[in-house]
Design brief:
Blueprint lengths: L3 H10 L1 E13 L4 E15 L2 H10 L12 E11 L4 E16 L2 E8 L9 E8 L4 E7 L3 E11 L2 E10 L10 E11 L2
Antiparallel strand pairs: 1-2, 1-10, 2-3, 3-4, 4-5, 5-6, 6-7, 7-8, 8-9, 9-10
């Protein structure tokens, strides 16, 4: 399984980033939409072997920690919305490739702390080497988050976050509750 392109993607994501996002909160029952803008500062570092082991243990995930295909990052961010709301968080993320075919790599995406719920969580990822796009899907208690990072070049990324009301098992994602869009630029 070819993982070099995923590692290159993560290598390009290391460093400090400044992000401008727009969030659209949708209330489909009332046909209303609230729009909010925010600014975020990200710091992304490589995931050390000790932190890889911690993320695996936090998620009670069985995997050979010596496997070099495991890759990930340490992430710290600070966000302030135009309303003055502030959020900061630090987490560790580990990507466990499971299968790859025709330039598409898929596997599990593990975090020691999730965005929506402060607990360890195992999600799904798909990476397209041709599109240089990482798609992460997380099933939280009440929403399903589909997060896309598209690497335009090593200093510019486009981000899309779609949160759906979590449907019953086997039902499609249809009720969009949040759509976020952002431009992410590396601070040199």
């Amino acid at each position: 399984m070819e993982t070099d392109s995923l590692q290159h993607f993560f290598d390009c994501c290391l460093g400090n980033w400044e992000i401008e996002r727009t969030y659209h909160y949708l209330n489909q029952h009332l046909n209303q939409q609230e729009v909010e803008r925010s600014s975020t500062k990200f710091n992304v570092k490589p995931l050390t072997p000790a932190l890889k082991t911690k993320v695996l243990q936090d998620n009670q995930y069985c995997w050979d920690s010596e496997d070099e295909r495991l890759t990930g990052f340490q992430l710290a961010f600070y966000t302030i919305s135009e309303k003055g709301d502030e959020v900061s968080q630090e987490l560790n993320a580990l990507f466990v490739p499971k299968r790859g075919d025709a330039g598409i790599l898929q596997g599990d995406y593990l975090r020691d702390k999730a965005y929506e719920e402060a607990r360890p969580i195992v999600s799904h990822f798909q990476f397209s080497a041709n599109e240089r796009e990482l798609l992460m899907t997380t099933h939280y208690t009440s929403v399903v988050s589909v997060d896309s990072i598209k690497l335009i070049n090593p200093n510019l990324r486009i981000r899309q976050i779609l949160n759906y009301h979590r449907p019953q098992e086997g039902e499609p994602l249809e009720k969009l509750v949040l759509a976020g869009f952002g431009v992410e630029q590396k601070v040199l």
